[in-house]
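Q: I have 442 residues here and want to know how they pack in 3D. Can you give me a structure?
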Amino acid sequence: MAASTSASDRPPLSTEERRVLLSTLAGTSIEWYDFFIYAQAASLVLAPLFFAPVSDDSPGLATVLSLATIGISFLFRPLGAIVAGRFGDRLGRKKMLVFTLVTMGAATALIGLLPTYGDIGVAAPVALMLLRIVQGFSAGGEWGGAALMSVEHAPVHRRGLFGAYPQIGVPIGLILATGVLWLMTTVTTPEQFEAWGWRVPFLLSVLLVAIGYLIRRAVEESPVFKEMLARKQESSAPLRDLFRRNAKEVLLTALVFVANNAAGYLVVAYFISYGTAVLGLPRPSVLLATVFASVGWLVFTLYGGALSDRIGRVRTFQIGYAWVFVWMVPMFLLIDLGNIVVFSLAIFVLTIGLGLSYGPMSALYAELFPVSVRYSGVSIGYALGAILGGAFAPTIAELLMQNTGWSGSVGVYIMVLCVVSFGGATAIKEPKGADLGVAHRS
């Protein structure tokens, strides 16, 4: 039996499997590029442009408001998860993935065209928040479909690795977003960047979405969903059925994600603001440090997915959260030295734990829910975890710093969330290898 699952005896990936992995990777990378461009622009430039009266009187409060708009979108992720989950469980994963990709791209491009407060007054921040809500709605439906397309196409012994592909869309999207912002801050003066340079990354989304659309259209529907339709097992009311039969799984999946999402958004947005505004490090250097950390996040996420195929999903999560917990306070002590090399290495080491607690997520979530409500279950659990975790993590971090003056308070905040997520993972009975077909029951 052991020989049959060894690396040398595993069959090579089929053409369709490769196409699925490319599709989920490309689509989620583009979706998260769109999402992270906003988060980073909010930490760098949106406060004086869209909250000008507040910025003139209190720059710190304007920064808090700008970072808070990141979190507002998370409140609408569950709505996107419910809508995409309902139709994804009835019409298929592929259709909803195309829909969420196009919707996210349109909202991102429109942000790049928005007039500022100086042009249209209070209508500018209102329009900004409305488009951010659309981004949140799209993100709420995107992840579940991408996760299921990859895991439901995967051989049983490779589910963790296959499921890590949509996960690495997060660091790839972050690399793309940060890289483009770095380029624009390098080739423009601060005045040019504030005047028009910040818009370019948003408008580039149009090209990326067109590429992602073509890739996703070429992929076959999930074989598990096809089997469900062939046996006419679809749920007529997936949301009602989900909470009647699988409420516990929804709660546990949300708790498992909380700490990872909060710590991840420190990398995505908070450290950029902290490094430039508090430590006085050059903006291009801080952005490059974020790219460096994102590469680590990518590598360790793939490794985390593959590791979970060997030692189990739960154990991999436990190792990842233990790592993040232990590293939090030392990381901030190193960051506060104000040296850009140490700053970069400190964040990079954090991504080891981030990757191990993110890579196995797609496989874990998919294996916990029956097929008739799986899209709804994984999407809603993920969205709720994002609200409890990363939605307002940059804002909370900023408020903690302003009120305590001690960066370690942010580390303690993440440590508390690590305890919550570690407990959530520990409460799950190891699901590795569960039947994902229509015979699966929770």
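Q: Anything worth noting?
A: The chain has 23 helices and no strands. The radius of gyration is 21 Å.
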